[in-house]
Specification:
The protein is of the alpha/beta class. Helix content is 21%, strand content 28%.
Length: 179
């Protein structure tokens, strides 16, 4: 049995390149002839139901689902599991990731670490504590051009989950972010 399972988490604000980095790592794994399955939460339907798609329009085929346990069911004989928009999954994503890693699999998870109010988003904060490797990305502040680590909502909508693009969100630095 392979005992080299790991959990990698890619996090940061909107427009920081999380999905782009996830796709990059998964494509490299495919080039290395590893078996790869990719999942995203069905809530993220901005570009496609069957692909994860970066803001740069790079894309890779995926399974769209909302039940975290389906990831376990679909991961037999798979080397690497990619999960995008992990903040939309419930806390069971942590157990699923840990169980898959214990099976010797490499789990690469991407998601927003904070919501538009700058509070931990979904299971991401707890998932970070279980990660073997963490990559925290920054965006560029749309106000001043500095490094941005916040997602500024541009609408008055108060729901935590509001799927959108640049019409609803901007990346902001700490000084330009308005809570």
């Amino acid at each position: 049995m392979n005992t080299n399972g790991i959990i990698e988490v890619i996090c940061g604000p909107m427009f920081s390149g999380k999905t782009e980095e996830l796709i990059r790592r998964l494509v490299r794994a495919q080039i290395a002839k590893k078996t790869v399955h990719i999942f995203k939460h069905s809530t993220d339907n901005r570009y496609s139901e069957d692909y994860i798609v970066s803001h740069n329009k790079n894309r890779i085929k995926c399974h769209s689902l909302n039940d975290t346990n389906q990831i376990m069911d679909l991961s037999d004989n798979i080397d690497i599991i990619g999960i995008d928009e992990a903040q939309f999954f419930d806390d069971s994503i942590i157990d699923v990731s840990n169980n898959l890693a214990k099976e010797g699999k490499r789990i690469i998870v991407a998601g927003l670490d904070r919501d538009y109010k700058a509070i931990p988003f979904g299971p991401m904060a707890n998932l970070l504590t279980h990660a073997d490797y963490i990559t925290k990305l920054n965006a560029i502040c749309m106000v001043c051009g500095n490094q941005a680590s916040f997602s500024q909502r541009l609408t008055k909508d108060k729901a935590q989950i509001l799927v959108g693009e640049s019409e609803k969100y901007e990346a902001r630095c700490r000084n330009c972010y308005e809570s």
